[in-house]
Amino acid sequence: MPETAAPPSLDTFPRLLGHHALVRGGKTAMREKYLGIWQTWSWREVAERVGDLACGLAELGFRRGDNLAIVGDNRPRLYMAMAAAQSLGGVPVPLYQDAVADEMKFVLQDAGIRFALVEDQEQVDKLLEIKGELPALEHIVYDDSRGMRHYTQPFLHDIEELLGVGRVRQKDHPDFLASEIAVGRHDDVSVMLYTSGTTGRPKGVCLTHDAFISAARGGVAFDRLSADEEILSYLPMAWVGDHLFSFAQALVAGFAINCPESGETVMTDLREIGPTYYFAPPRVFENLLTQVTIRMEDAGRLKQRLYQYFMGVARRCGADILDGKPVSGSDRFLYALGSLLVIGPLKNVLGMSRIRIAYTAGAAIGPDLFRFYRSIGINLKQLYGQTETCAYVCLQPDGEIKLDSVGKPAPGVEVKIAENGEILVKGPMLLKEYYQRPDATAEAINAEGYFLTGDAGFFDDDGHLKIIDRAKDVGRLANGAMFAPNYIENKLKFFPYIKEAVAFGHQREMVCAFINIDIGAVGNWAERRGIAYSGFADLAAKVEVYQLIQGCVEEVNAQLVAEGMLADSQIHRFLVLHKELDPDDDELTRTRKVRRGFIAQKYAVLIDALYAGRSTQYIETQVRFEDGRTGKVAAEVQIRDAKTFPALRQTA
Amino acid sequence: MSGRTSGDVILDLQNISLRFGGVKALTDISFNVREHEIRAIIGPNGAGKSSMLNVINGVYHPQEGRIVFHGEERRKMEPHKAAAQGIARTFQNIALFKGMSVLDNIMTGRITKMHASFLEQAIHFGRARREELEHRQKVEEVIDFLEIQHIRKTPVGRLPYGLQKRVELARALAAEPTMLLLDEPMAGMNVEEKQDMCRFILDVNDQFGTTIVLIEHDMGVVMDISDRVVVLDYGKKIGDGTPDEVRSNPEVISAYLGVSH
Fold first, then answer.
1. Exposed, middle or buried by CB within 10 Å (0-12, 13-18, 19+), for A443?
2. Where does the pLDDT of residue A648 fall: very low under 50, low under 70, confident under 90, or very high at 90 and above?
3. pLDDT digit string (tens) for A242-301?
4. Which domains, from first to last, does chain A contain?
5. Percent of chain B residues topping a pLDDT of 90
6. Rounded CA gap, B86 and B94, in Å?
7. Strand ranges, E, within chain B
8. How far apart are CA A540 and CA A276, in angstroms?
9. How near does any CA of chain A get to the CA of B200, in Å?
């Protein structure tokens, strides 16, 4: 793979960091908003701090081959800690920061963590809660000292203290760090990312410097990313996408990452930074559009008319203009006018004025949603990949965007379709192994060195890859027709009123669905109609809401019929769930994917009621609050029949 | 409550009586507040709790009694003097400027610390500019402390009740008080908001060493976070002591907690 291989002097992340400190030492590498002001670190400052941090860790006893757990929101010093661990030949292991202590325990035990670097008191408390079951854990370093005054345990360290110790060691042993970095090899493991556990227990995916650097180099070349890009780093550090964009690509291309002030300020921070390169899961794009739609509905009539007119123009020609396709002069003029009056200001409000390239992945994106962003001139593209492939398998090339495909194989990646429809990939970005799980590694990588993605898909005539569903999720209805639950659920979720959906139908005579309403969109809809409600459960049970959802379901049925092949998958019966599906209740994964099996088990009574033809069903479910306590919610859930359409059996 | 120690008496109220015409709001009440402690005042509706706070910061002037604050004895406090001496408070009914942003509202808490003249402030020059930066820094620290960064620029009127309460606390904290009077800081909040507020009150007390006098209805909260509790009923003091002492005081049980349930 000549175009993705790195020269030896730049073949590990610590070496790349040293390179940027030399070549563009004064240029901004990281920003973080603190006390209302964006604080800046240059590449030189980052390299210095990483050095101090590494030496501080070494002083604590961190050695080559050790794993460093990193838990917290996106903070510059947590990113620095990753590079610090790598400098010493250790492996950073980022964990999902919103996981409860119990969930963390497994990963911390599995990775044999001796050292943890965490954000704040909240995370320290979690670790202290389970420390008794973590005999290996020796030291905990915290980034934010607030509230830590009375913690007297000798194994707790303020990061400032660590940096100070490191600085002294740097002075006493000036060659130590350089020699440690020189020992590092390109085929060392650079990071360990745990799979989200959609299927069973999380596994530690070991990815080498080689893997991530080639994935990053491939992406940087593919989209011509320069050292001048700005990116907002706000997605969990434990997620492969963030590691690729905010760590690997930033270090390969030398661009700046920006950490938001807090989880709630992301929208404001996005607007202030105006990133040029942006990544978000479909959910975020969806939320943004929902907010725009809600606000437009509350706007004055003139504004609404202007918005609707120019969005119409944008829908007609915006995407073509973006792709450089021929567009008539009058449309060009109208689009330019629209940009001035509506689209430009809208992009500015969204914080997207400067975006050159935006990516989405992780779940299917609705066609309307995708078209909306492209029509207002945002070069939104899809990519396909998983933790095991550094999120780097397929990318959509500029100008060749298809709504229902994930693009062509990325540079250096080989993709092939197995006989059962499963997608197999091979390339330098593949995982080295699952941590201490040779059995799982052997299952995931076949004899020819292909990684089995577990997704079912096919190539279209232009060589674009289309994903249908998880290979194991694709089921059959009782009559033998294909049943792809994700496909149906995604269609449902494309309605702003529907937040989550779970479809059932494998080995059944018909398809039924659970619907989770979007409290924001439906709440606003209800308010405008003067429908009073007291909370989520009450709103979900309203007759009017059922009618609204019924309309959505029936529209999906109409679409499914139109697609011929899936006419049998029409939704015959549905219900609106009385509580929100929540990762805290194990109903969704931390990346918010539906855990179908678990839900089927937990709500078995509701499924039985759907198929037994009952019109209401009483259910009691346990919920877990944020502080870990549990409670119960009970409801009488109504079940409705949806209109289905006769299948148009087409010839051909 | 590791490591928290209460110091000397800094506020001593002696034989305070307050009347509005013929209505006796407070009758011969004495209690004291020690440095760094969290002191709760509880009692049924109309027991005189808010009146007591208003006496402490000088909104009401008692007809009888003495107030000793930091060793200085006086008949009554005056609000501006109380503020200048480091007493800040929040109100039972939120008293914020609804049309102003959160940031500006908190900025008003710095008013006693502003020295630049009206003219300097008007043209934003010299001392005014320097001061503004200093005050903004302090205000931002409070915003960070109370975790309200996301609403910095939002007009207060648009915020939900629980957040408005937090903004009010922020404004009081911006004055860098040595004593903080909180009038029902958790009224009308849900469980989660109450927990947050408790945490902030304990953090303030712990981190800045601020003495806190609070009125609260939620007995669970009071018993959890207070060092000492005063119980009022019909303007009279019927109990005073640690939460445990108060809880087992029979007079308190019959007057306030009612029959055990």
1. exposed
2. low
3. 999 999 999 999 999 999 998 889 988 999 999 999 999 888 898 888 888 888 888 889
4. 10-213+220-260 (3.40.50.12780), 277-353+355-384 (no CATH), 475-641 (3.30.300.30)
5. 45
6. 21
7. 9-20, 23-34, 38-42, 64-69, 72-74, 87-90, 179-183, 211-215, 228-233, 236-241
8. 39
9. 10
Residue A73 pLDDT > 90: yes
Q: Judge: B137–A626 Cβ closer than 8 Å, yes or no.
A: no
Q: Residue A163 above 90 pLDDT?
A: yes
Q: Are B254 and B238 in contact (CB under 8 A)?
A: no
Last residue of one domain, picked from the residues B156, B176, B196:
B176
Pairing of strands B9-20, A630-641: unpaired
Minimal CA separation from B248 to chain A, in Å: 29
Q: Ranked by mean pLDDT, which of A147-151, A377-381, A621-625 comes out on top?
A: A377-381
Chain A contact set for B192 (CB, 8 A) = 625-627
Diameter over CA atoms, chain B: 64
Q: Specify burial of residue A620 (Cβ count, 10 A radius: 0-12, 13-18, 19+).
A: exposed
Residue with tokens 């800094």: B10
Q: Which residue has the tokens 């997608």?
A: A423
> How far apart are alpha carbons B99 and A616 in whole angstroms?
47
- Which domain range does residue B133 map to? 95-176
User: What is the chain A residue with the closest CA to B195?
Assistant: A627
A629 touching chain B per CB within 8 A:
no
Do residues A516 and A489 touch, judged by C-beta distance below 8 A? no
Neighbouring C-alpha atoms within 13 Å toward the C-beta of A611: 15
A650 has a pLDDT exceeding 80: no
When divided into structural domains, chain B yields a total of 2
Among B153, B176, B199, where does a domain finish? B176
Q: B148 and B33, same structural domain?
A: no
Q: In this structure, are residues A290 and A493 in contact, taking their beta carbons and an 8 Å threshold?
A: no
In angstroms, the separation between the Cα of residue B36 and the nearest Cα of chain A is: 16
The tens digit of pLDDT for each residue in A305-323 reads 999 999 999 988 988 888 8
**What separation in angstroms does the CA of A469 have from each of A54, A69, A328, A343, A459?**
43, 33, 39, 35, 14
Residues B251 and B189 both lie in one domain: yes
Distance from C-alpha of B110 to C-alpha of B115, rounded to nearest angstrom: 10
pLDDT tens for each residue of B137-196? 999 999 999 999 999 999 999 998 889 999 999 999 999 999 999 999 988 888 888 989
* DSSP class of A628: S
Whether residue B5 is found in the same domain as residue B80: yes
* pLDDT tens string A322-363: 888 888 999 999 999 999 999 999 999 899 999 999 999 877
